[in-house]
Amino acid sequence: MTGYRSPTPTVITQLMHEKLTDRGYTVEQIEKMTPAGALASMIMGKDDGVVFEASGAPMFSAKRGGEEGIVTKPMYPSDPTMERAVLGNLLLDVSGYPEVARLLDADDFYIVKHGWYWSAITALIGKDEPVSPVTVTAELRAAGRMRDGDLDADVHKLQLDAAANNSEALHLAQEVKALAGRRAMIRAGARTTELAHDSSVDPSDILRLAQSDLDVIQIGDPDAPILSLMTANTILQTDWPEPIWAIPGLMPVGLTILAGKAKLGKSWLALQIAQAVAAGGYALDQHVEQGPVLYLALEDNPARLKNRMRKQGWPLDLTADFMVMGEFARQVGDLKKGGGERLAAQIERAGYRLVVIDTLSRSCHGDQNDVEQMTRALTPLQEMAHAQNCAILMNDHHRKGFGTNPDAVADILGSTAKGAMADSIWGLYRERGKSGAKLAVTGRDLEEQNLAIKMDWLTGCWQVTGNADAIALTERRQEIIDTLKLLEEPAGVTDIAKAIGQNKGKTYQRLQTLCAGGLVVRKGVGKRVFYSLREEEDIG
Q1: Are strands 354-358 and 424-429 parallel, antiparallel or unpaired?
Q2: Quick one: which of 256, 491, 500, 536 has the most CB atoms within 10 Å?
Q3: Vertex 484, ends 483 and 488: CA angle to 5°?
Q4: CB 105 within 8 A of CB 174
Q5: Residues of the chain by 3-state class (helix, strand, coil), percent to 5
Q6: How far, in Å, are 11, 266, 298 from residue 303 at the CA level?
Q7: For residue 74, what are the contacts with CB-CB under 8 A and spacing of at least 6?
């Protein structure tokens, strides 16, 4: 862009101040400008977020052959000639306006007066009036823009230049829009840089603002199809690959939450699974495919981790990376404040097959009942896990007082967003002092299962002992039989349920099963029913 020449001013005159105000600058911005910077702003037009500081550095190279005041190259991407061609083509043939208007508005023109011309054309079309250099000039005058006396001649020259150029308006508009998009990206970058220098602004807020700035930038036709969609036939007729499993039938790729009360052995189980994947061994009786592992032991120091790994028999030279207590906060940070993105980048870079986060509460501070916070923390990890065919196992806690009917999803501490986002959920239930426990497993792509598992403290590993429901049913029935032995006389449902500490309704159902099996006899006395063992059966 060449041809603008003006003597270098020594002060910002009242006239300059008025023109800068007309172009949208605030008083505070004008006061920060040097005279040269003010002149540059008048010539080039305003770009939001850009002001000329005391250094006076203008947004263009202001020297050519030793002469001051000649604009040679804008720092911002622009093509004033192309902008004029778009406007001139509309003056020649306004029929192309609807298509062009889907792309452009006044702010997309880098030269301020070109934006005025566009607004005038738009206003005329809105009033269903003809568009020509004469009517555009009249509209500019009505809008108070004709104080710049050369605009009349300039509007007429637009049409003459377009006639000589004979360019197609829509194609030119697309180019102008693309340049406007580039300028918006530069402004977004400038804003991000400014905020990054401000130590009072949280880095996660800067990231969100930067993304928000970029999300609103439009460089194409807003009405053009932008979604890549599949038809129903494509879904039905395509042979889709089978789901990939970290542990077949139990842990798919994606996000898995292992929740339970404190000190039940969740960390031992997670470490056991990590070893199985790193070595290509067995986890919960299932053979797993070998792959690199990342284990974030956020509650353990290296010495404790070493003792547990030795107890579980970890061999040397496994492909497993660890991060211990304290390092996560320093290297990764809170998952909902940018840590999720940083951890996702590490997962992509290293190609982990399994990532263990022990625990979720150590990796994500704040209110775990807040749906928005939990979603912000977990979304980057879940998306990266699916993209990289990686399983992420997060240890979490159960809420207090979940009653006698455990539910792996509902019992998770805090926001429902955690359970809603997880691809699979494991609930670990164990009575204090007992080695046996139940592992309840549920998820999107797997059948609900209740595994009976038992901790072998000699090896520090959990062992599967069978189906928890079947084992529990057998144990409860045996409790009833043992209780009837101790009572030595017929008893009612209420007394039996109280004696074994179980729900009255469940106890009644189990008594009917025992009666049907011939182990218990039922006798009515008045309105009451009593139960006792069959004396001839040896049921010990």
Answers
A1: unpaired
A2: 256
A3: 115
A4: no
A5: 45, 15, 40
A6: 71, 19, 13
A7: 1, 44, 59, 60, 110
> Taking a C-beta distance cutoff of 8 angstroms, is the pair 243, 252 a contact?
yes
Rg (CA), the chain: 37
**This model's pTM is above 0.85:** no
34-83: per-residue pLDDT in tens? 665 666 565 554 443 333 333 333 333 333 333 333 333 345 788 888 89
Three-state SS annotation for 299-320: CCCHHHHHHHHHHCCCCCCCCE
Which backbone phi and psi does 86 adopt, to 5 degrees?
Answer: -60, -50
Q: Which residues pair with 296 in a beta bridge?
A: 323, 357
Helix axes of 112-126 and 133-142: crossing angle, nearest 10 degrees: 100
Q: What is the largest CA-CA distance in the chain?
A: 120
Per-residue pLDDT reduced to its tens digit, 224-250: 555 678 889 888 998 888 778 899 989
Q: How far apart are CA 461 and CA 439, in angstroms?
A: 14
Instruction: Output DSSP code: residue 68.
Output: E
Query: Could you give the CA distance from residue 453 to residue 443 in angstroms, rounded to a whole number?
Result: 19
- Classify the C-alpha dihedral 127-131-135-138 as positive or negative: positive
29 vs 254 pLDDT, higher one = 254
Nearest-CA neighbor of 466 among 474, 478, 476, 458?
474
Helix (H) or strand (E) holding 289: none
Cα–Cα dist 418/369, whole Å: 9
Q: Are 245-456 and 472-533 the same fold in CATH?
A: no
The span from the CA of 104 to the CA of 51, in Å, is 25
Per-residue tokens: 413 = 């501490």
Domain residue extents for the chain = 14-68, 245-456, 472-533
Angle at 481 between CA 479 and CA 486, to 5 degrees: 95
Tokens of 9: 């001013």
Give the count of alpha carbons within 13 A of 369, CB side only: 1
Tell me which H or E stretch contains 429.
strand 424-429
Per DSSP, the three-state class of 116 is helix
Q: What number of residues does the chain have?
A: 540
Tokens of 518: 């011939």
Task: Look at strands 320-324 and 293-297 and give their pairing.
Answer: parallel
d(CA 57, CA 282): 66
Q: What are phi and psi of 443, to 5 degrees?
A: 175, 180
Integer CA distances (angstroms), 318 to 92, 294, 302, 321, in order: 73, 11, 17, 9
- Percent of the chain at pLDDT above 90? 21
| 493: Cβ contacts below 8 Å, ≥ 6 apart | 504, 507, 508, 511, 529, 531
C-alpha distances in angstroms, 517 versus 287, 377, 522, 528? 39, 53, 12, 22
pLDDT of residue 537: 39
Q: Which CATH architecture has domain 245-456?
A: 3-Layer(aba) Sandwich (3.40)
